[in-house]
Amino acid sequence: MAVMPTTVALVGSTGSIGTQAVDVVRAAAGHFEVVALGAARSVDRLVAQAEELHPQVVAIADEEHAPALKDRLPAGIEVRAGSEALASIAGMADVTLNAVVGFAGLPVTLAALAAGRRLALANKESLIAGAPAVRAVRSTPGAEILPVDSEHCAIHQCLRTGRPAAELARLVLTASGGPFRGRTAASLAGVTVEEALAHPTWSMGPKITIDSSTLMNKGLEVLEAHELFGTGFDQIEVIVHPQSIVHSFVEWVDGASIAQLSRPDMRLPIGYALAYPDRLPVPFGPIDWGALGELSFEAADDDVFPCLGLAYEAGRAGGLAPAWLNAANEVAVGAFLDRRIAWHQIPDVIRSTLDRYPADTGAGPVSADVVYDADRDARLTARQTVQRMVA
Q1: Residue 360 has pLDDT above 80, yes or no
Q2: pTM confidence score
């Protein structure tokens, strides 16, 4: 008897992760049926994807683009538009990929888990900033999170080799080091947006690429690992590995380390999350071991890249401090991309914002509304900090 394909909703389908997910669906013909697509405003890409994949529903968050989308889609496809459109498709499929950028992905995460779906999570910010609210819906029967970040996908695979509750010593997240690895703080005083966007290994969207240049991306991944795997911050370490071949590893109590290795290709963790617990018979990122060359590792420089330490600090503070960290970082990165502040001022904005975090925030039960309020307050505080810097 033929096996029915896994149904998939691709939310954020037109961005870097979303388009690579379409590559995975295309390469693994017959394994998946895309029933829903969603994006913020990219009409041209949504139309092209819908013509290829024939979903039941296409959602667009920007209502102004809805009429143009309706006019160009193939007949029979439902269009949903508005602020709740993306979250509305998150419960339609066996597995939902959340590839929305930034805090805006939180409603999609909550909707998918509340519907008892598998969530292929490429939106780390929603898990980090919305952690208290996300924890409440993760207990929904059928709900599970499969990480799409290459590092957390690697850890997920490595943890399958042992008994984490009894035998885990630590998690080690690898970092490429970004475009400024090895640089001094003085040499980074005048770096440009273009230099910060020139990642040596990965092809990613602007926000995550800037985060990689400051090591905030790795800081956010530390917070994400804490939430995903229930591991204490003293058991999570970051090590720089410029080749991006070892995507992370776990160390067991007997000293053994288990790592996951592959060439850098985001389609591997995407396919892993969509097909879990199976593996797709399509190789993404296989290694030519004879031509691999050297694998090197070095400690992260917390002095040159203070964002990493700020993330640990927010995580240990608990409550909604990670939400404040995430909001401040999004504001600071946006200001840098708009050329309003310098690259080295990004951690200054975050530090100033965290200094104003009310320590009793999130002490009791936290609803999604409380998380949204915290995000709003932190953004306002961060924008005020930016404004003082540029005045």
Answers
A1: no
A2: 0.91
